[in-house]
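User: What would this chain look like folded?
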Amino acid sequence: MSTLTARPAETDAPILDVLAERWSTRIFDRDAAIDEAALASALEAARWTPTAANSQAWRVIVARRGSQSHAKLLATLAGFNRAWAGDAAALVVFIAETEREGKPLRWAEYDAGQVAAHFTVQAHADGLSTHQMGGFDASAIAADFGLDAGFVPVTVMAVGELGDIRTASDELQARENAPRVRRPISESVLVDD
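Assistant: Here's the prediction, encoded as structure tokens.
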């Protein structure tokens, strides 16, 4: 069991506990299988994400640790991500369908991001930890999984049970224990009349 089980955000205004308590760990329990019920609920939350004109221009690849698909995805990750993400019980790729019937779907990547967010919040609510990654080879994923040209991998997410920080490398422990910070909302809101 990890000695680090909670890292709530210090917010300037009240937010839902599930949002304040969620963080992107890099330390997963390498022996725990994915909680299939929690994964199914996270995928169901993803399914009910609002999308532009209900286009549902997204797909996912779910790869459980030990499968050929997991090994293929792990090989596409950037070096540092590859060093820790293999311990996650599953890797999930969120894919935007950027065109349909020859027409561009302008909001597809935005919608895929919302899908990943809904998945993340539901996963956390059900006891799973997650970490989204941008360091991956999208072309390799497309080739390895035979994606059509209009299907673009947007993010890869590690999913599983929180691991024991005491077994992690010094570098991972330092990152995991680093303060959680966000810029002030006043720097993000451009106009507030």
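The chain has a mean pLDDT of 95. If you want, I can go into more detail on any region.
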